[in-house]
Give the backbone structure.
Amino acid sequence: MRNLAEKENNEKSMVSIRHLYKSYGNGISTTRALYNINLEVERGEILAIVGESGSGKTTLLNLIGGLDVCEEGEIYLDGELLDLGNDKAMAECRRESIGYVFEKIQLIPGLNVLENILLPVRLRGGAIEKKQLTTFLKRLEVFQMRREPLRRLSAEERQKVAVARALVNIPKLVLADEPTGNLNSRSGDYVLDLLIQYCRDYGQTLILATHNRAYARLADRCVEIKDGRISAPAS
Ligand SMILES: Nc1ncnc2c1ncn2[C@@H]1O[C@H](COP(=O)(O)OP(=O)(O)OP(=O)(O)O)[C@@H](O)[C@H]1O
Ligand SMILES: [Mg+2]
């Protein structure tokens, strides 16, 4: 039976992860990607998860975002236990509550900038008032390029589009997987600052996965993931 302290934590946190295990493979050759992950992320917190390549960052974010399933464990989002194996429920949860900046950006080449950014709004069956949209696009520095096809954009501009797409539905949780991985350090710093400042201003919870320890300093808190285990805070 769950104890009272755990229950209170689940209700207090934006994300509460309990005893999460994830392996890839078929039993003959199995990779243990996550091992007994326990993690609390407070509402409005900017948390950096730092780890080397292959440490399990993407796997963890994909589980929180419902893009993959695990063998064991529980994840609570804003006090609600996620139905991790239920694709339909998780798709709805993503649409309503989670914004994702993917490691490989994953914009849609056939759509222009604005169409890409508005995709989550369309999927949700919603709309944004014009003035509000203009303010949003200007704030994220994608207003001028809104009619452009993606092929005309620089790497930094594409990343800004990916950030805007993740934020457009005002999700309570933002997951950013190496959001600067495709950029040089100057552009990377710039776009990350844009993302973090936005989340701070709007009180959104941000989980940022990165191999770059320097970025951890921009977060409120940092944990390190190593061989699929959360270890002591990175220094
Ligand atoms: N689809 C998959 N099939 C098999 N093994 C996988 C798969 N995805 C990840 N892994 C393995 O799980 C472990 C964690 O991988 P993961 O991609 O989560 O790490 P990461 O920290 O995001 O790495 P990177 O910094 O390179 O993006 C690694 O050993 C990786 O090889
Ligand atoms: Mg990764």
Notes: The first strand starts at residue 13 and ends at 25. The mean pLDDT is 91. Residues 185-201 form the longest helix (17 residues). The chain has one domain: 43-69+87-231.
